[in-house]
Design brief:
Length: 281
């Protein structure tokens, strides 16, 4: 038997035209899809390795910073401990405040050194002036003033004086000099005369008198005329030439009499003896 060969059916012109249009479109779509898919770059492929390589130095730097901070704290702590130990050793070596050596305790005035009712100030001792008052005819009942001279010089302390009669302040010693010699306080360098001024005690006042001094006398920054008497008070400022000091009155004749005088008896009343106040309304 003879097989019949089928001939292919010829395509129509419309089918050919459609195929011709589809092929360029597919060809254009393929490159577009290829451009959409990202191609692995050398930077992205090696990024993980680079991150791993950078993380190791960062960790080492962090560890070294922690070690430095720890060392600094240890140094601070050790320094604090050293200073504390040094302070303790100084405190142990120093003298306790509740104990005084013999030299220090000797600078404090003792109550037994003064007569009953006599007040004491900052001075360690008080010099009675003028010297040999009884030989000069000064009575024991004469007005007595206890004073202190302060700020005579750096580190000089207080100079205590019991005035029982007229005393001359200046340089040197009697009879040509002064009863109170201020030479240890650089009186000559500061223009203090040998017989510069006088302190005269009375029952009510203590007077300052200039004795015709060369460089003058000032009382509370006010010039004192020659031969003029001016009453001084507690904490007054006196200047002889260029030597300035403070006069502090510890006790006067009236205060001494009041301290020694017995206190009057005061009658005590019971609450029942008290009467209400009558205003007279």
């Amino acid at each position: 038997m003879t097989e019949e060969k089928k001939e292919p059916t010829p395509k129509s012109e419309e089918t050919k035209a459609e195929e011709t249009v589809k092929k360029p479109a597919q060809a254009e779509a393929a490159p577009a899809e290829e451009s959409k898919s990202p191609s692995p770059s050398p930077e992205s492929s090696g990024g993980t390795k680079q991150t791993e390589q950078l993380s190791e130095p960062d960790a080492e730097e962090a560890d070294s910073a922690d070690e430095e901070q720890s060392d600094a704290q240890d140094d601070i702590q050790s320094e604090e401990e050293r200073l504390l130990d040094k302070a303790k050793s100084r405190a142990d070596a120093s003298q306790p405040t509740n104990k005084l050596d013999q030299r220090t305790s000797g600078t404090f005035p003792l109550a037994g050194q003064f007569a009953f009712g006599t007040r004491g100030g900052e001075a360690a001792m008080y010099i009675e002036l003028p010297i040999n008052a009884s030989e000069k005819g000064i009575s024991e009942t004469a007005p007595r003033w206890r004073i202190e001279l302060l700020d005579l010089g750096s580190g000089s302390g207080s100079l205590g004086i019991d005035i029982v009669g007229d005393i001359v302040i200046g340089r040197g010693n009697p009879p040509d000099g002064a009863d109170l010699d201020l030479s240890p306080y650089k009186a000559a360098e500061k223009g203090v005369s040998r017989r510069h001024a006088m302190l005269r005690p009375t029952a009510n006042h203590l007077y300052l008198i200039d004795l015709n001094s060369t460089n003058g006398t000032m009382h509370n920054a006010t010039p004192l005329g020659k031969g003029i008497a001016r009453s001084v008070r507690n904490n007054d400022s006196i200047t002889l030439g260029r030597l300035t000091f403070t006069l502090k009155i510890i006790q006067g004749p009236k205060s001494a009499e009041e301290s020694a005088a017995p206190k009057p008896n005061v009658e005590k009343k019971s609450p029942g003896d008290t009467k209400p106040f009558d205003a007279g309304l």
